[in-house]
Amino acid sequence: MFARSMLRSAGPLRQSIRSYATEAPSKSSSTPFIVGAAAVGTGILGYTFLGNNKVAADAPKPSDDAKYGASKIGDGSKAFTGGDQGFISLKLAEVHEYNHNTKILKFALPDPEQVSGLSVASAVITKYQPPNGEKPIIRPYTPINDEDVKGYLELLVKVYPNGPMSEHMHSMVPPQRLDFKGPIPKYPWAPNKHDHITLIAGGTGITPMYQLIRTIFKNPEDKTKVSLIYGNVTEADILLKEELEKIENEFPQRFRAFYLLDNPPPSWPYGKGFISKELVKTVAPDPKSGNIKIFVCGPPGMYKAVSGNKTSPQDQGELSGILKDLGYTKDQVFKF
Predict the structure, then answer these.
(1) Domain membership of residue 119 as a residue range
(2) Percent of the chain with pLDDT over 90
(3) Which of 65, 160, 180, 331 could be 70's S-S partner, Cβ–Cβ 3.0 to 4.6 Å?
(4) What stretches of 117-244 adopt beta strand conformation (E)?
(5) Does 209 appear as a known binding residue?
(6) Residue 225: inside a domain
(7) What are the phi and psi torsion angles at 303 (to 5°)?
(8) Was 92 annotated as part of a binding site?
(9) Domain end call among 185, 219, 237
């Protein structure tokens, strides 16, 4: 059975709203983010991809690797090898406008025959030294292209107010360069590692979830069932919806997505408001149902309400919030 039997219902699920306060954003984070569900439907909403126009601009002369402090690599088949490998300076090859505050940046790998070297799930670290800054800006990103694609990696980058890395990346034009290091391992995935996984994402927290989703559904041997709860402020803020709907249409018995908006349009058929226990209980398998896993990725306020925050990148911290209240254990939850 795909989660609860209520997933088969075509009508909306009415839920009480559980409010919670999001934490104040840091200079490099987004504005407060709220997700939830007052009503959720299982139908598919038609959605048009918001733009794919290449940015035209005069490109400055690319900076050399020495200026960026990047290391050279050999002729291996993988650009990123981890371990003691230093930062690699990658040239920006293309920029595409995605929506009102998000761009796709395509960076060329040092050798067009190389793959990135990332595993699933893993990320890369970007580094930028501001001209007048004392310390470099370092931020993690999860590429959106397949790990076996040769010659490039693509980042989906949302610009945040007072976000030094995202503002810098949105100002870049080809063939400027940026330093990268990786792979940064997150959660080691293997086909059929779990019978059913539930992904709870907010905003750009969808990128590691999408990495898992596309890996699972491109592998015919992997039969994992996937439920996604994905929240944003407005419909225009939803990322990768076209790709997610394509997978949902192809695998309707194994993948369901539930979209939540803080400010939905009048005709919005999905959820509105805050995440509630009832929504999670309906979408996710019962904590006693067997080999399951719940993944969480989003802004601090969402972590606090749903699962509790991580103590550090290496320490998942204690489980709290909605998931603990519903009876899930720390071992059943992974916080990206």
Answers:
(1) 65-185
(2) 72
(3) 65
(4) 122-128, 137-141, 152-158, 177-185, 196-202, 225-232
(5) no
(6) yes
(7) -55, -50
(8) no
(9) 185
* Mean pLDDT across 28-49: 30
Q: How high is the pLDDT of residue 69?
A: 37
Is 9 labeled as ligand-binding? no
**207 is annotated as contributing to ligand binding:** yes
Tens-digit pLDDT profile for residues 3-37: 543 343 333 333 333 333 233 334 433 333 333 33
Q: Would 193 be classed as within a structural domain?
A: yes
Q: What is the pLDDT of residue 150?
A: 97
Find out whether 239 is annotated in a ligand binding site.
Answer: no
Find out whether 177 is annotated in a ligand binding site: no
On whether 116 is known to bind a ligand per the annotation, the reply is no
48 annotated as belonging to a binding site for a ligand: no
* CA proximity to 92, closest of 173, 191, 190, 16: 173
Q: Give the C-alpha separation, 171 to 149, whole Å.
A: 26
Work out the pLDDT band at 2, boundaries 50, 70, 90.
Answer: low
CA 134 – CA 45 distance, rounded (Å):
47
Q: What is the dihedral of CA 210, 213, 214, 216, to 10 degrees?
A: 160
Q: Which of 153, 185, 217 is the last residue of a domain?
A: 185
